Amino acid sequence: MSILSFRRKQSNPTPTTPDVSGFLTGYSIEVMPRTAAKVEDFRAILPQGTRVYIAHIDGTPLEDMVATAKRIAGEGFDVMPHFPARIIKDRATLAEWINRYQSEAGIKQGLILAGGVEEPKGDFHSSMQLLETGLFDQAGFTHLHVAGHPEGNRDIDPDGSDRAVTDALRWKQAFNERTDARMALTTQFCFEAAPVVAWTQAMRREGINLPVHIGIAGPAKLQTLIKFSIACGVGPSLRVLQKRAKDVTKLVLPFTPDEVVGDLAAAKAADPSFPIEQVHIFPLGGIKAATEWANARLNPAEIAQNA
User: pTM for the full model?
Assistant: First the structure.
């Protein structure tokens, strides 16, 4: 059943047109040093206060990461670099990363995750191990985001279940209750709303109330999205792309996330407790295409903040 098919209540009707503008307001975006270098000035394309995640791909020098963080922070944006456990050698290396980001770029936010490499390069293999060092709390980090997987994760649960993923969420919820930093779940991108709704409902039943920053793939060629989706382990919602790929008339057209964003906005309007706090955009078709798509759907007042 479509998300938009929820039965209306007379006292609190579901809007026929979802508030996509309100849902997208405050969106965040992800860049890498090499893609950020192609943007002359982020102030020309992003609303003020946008959080910019910097993905740390294996092999990227720390110097490039820190320089990118310093540059984007200097343009007035909140910067959240990745801390991928499997490419961090040891506690001393983690401490160096934290110190460099703080001392050179004034960073006190991080996305703490396992990372995409199969074999750890040192002592760490999970985000929980990084958090357990206590180094982020000692450094006074104000925001600690961790990974969320609305459609599961085969790296964590090879058998296709969600047991290990759920155990990790319970641990993250417990850690949230003993840290002063604000925590949230930043998720993998997906292409339909139903799995997200089901996932958030399951978290509620488990007593997990971390806010969700839902991952959305920005506009891109269908072939590009399918390639990244397979590489990143996107789950059943990949069928949305596969179904579209069967229509040869649509193969050359860019795929946009309007449908999934509209459905999620409607779900949030229908249920104020729906835990999606923000949208996080993966600009798989390029930063320019992603920001133009998002900004075109915001209220003019939000765009005016770019000045």
Answer: 0.86
